[in-house]
Amino acid sequence: MLDVDREQVLAHRIAAQGLHRDRSDPGELSVFDLGLQSTQRDTAAISLAARLPGAITEESVVDDSRFVLAWTHRGAPHFHRAGEIARVTAALVPLGEEDAMARMGWQRKQVEAAGMGALEGLFTAARALRKVVTGVMTKGAASEAVTKIIPDGLSYWCRGCQATHILEQVMRLAAIHGGVRLEAGAQPATLAPLPGRGRMRTTPDPAAATAVVRDYLRLHGPATPKEAAGFVGTTATLVRQMWPEDLVEVRVAGRKAWLPGAEVAALENPPEPAVVRLLPPWDPFLQSRDRNVLVPDRARQKEVWRILGNPGALLADGEVAGVWRSKGSGRKRLDFTITAFDPLPPATRTAAEEEAERVAKTRGFLDLRVTWN
Q1: What is the pTM for the complete model shown?
Q2: Sorted alphabetically, which InterPro entries does this protein's record hold (predicted)?
Q3: What mean pLDDT comes out for the span 355-371?
Q4: Domain annotation for the chain: domains and CATH numbers
């Protein structure tokens, strides 16, 4: 059995996720095998800037017809390769009622109170979205229209908006099954039909679900069923039903974890992680569910993953070495505050400031200022 330490695991992930900038075409980046999360404006573009050698702008992914933005894993918005959206959709069909309810996450209690099963609620909402979203329309307009044709239990009165809305997580999970995507770069959130959307699939595809777990283990492994379940948005018990057969057991600092057999050689001898990158919140590297491996210190974990308002992370020589935030001054200057967890060598600080310049250009700012804490 292969026995590795956390430093070796992180070096492997840095290489597996393209942070050595060994690709020049976004379509070739392995992170799109799972999808590139875009929870906040510019985060996807900054993730690309961390992985591609050339100049990156927000339009690099927003205006690239090879990619589609949709609510997918856990109901979060992700960019996917357009040619793979059917496979992604199939993988997101729950394996059964228990899986569907688990994916409802923070709105499980509301779904349970709706008086119908989670599967029924999911596909009822999907059919309504398919019927309503026949062209480009704002999320608010779509929600208002959908609530008129779904059972009352799937909607709620929003005091802030003074309107009735479909349950947020139900809408997010149902949209892809209803053949609905997000308009990339649009504010407020805007929906549109997926090109050439076919009939809605309600039958699970175990092979597609297993492929998602395998991709997670390939990009974030070695990992456990519980960690893979955290990414998928279901339970470890259900992920074991999606568990790939071609895995190798690995010990990470004495803890059992698994990796696809084809990745073992890369884990055994990863390239030196001698890179400095500014990663945005929700960057794929930060999506690994074993936070104790990424950042062993609990106090530092709370700095990287906050309840509200996550900062970006400074990746330096194989470690999450600090956090960063930025604030625009009009459209001319972007001010960065970088907080290092420990003193950094001058060369690392210089490299981080060069990465800040890339981030500023990606966001369309002409000038920047970097302050170190």
Answers
A1: 0.95
A2: AlkZ-like
A3: 94
A4: 18-193 (no CATH), 206-268 (1.10.10), 276-372 (3.40.630)
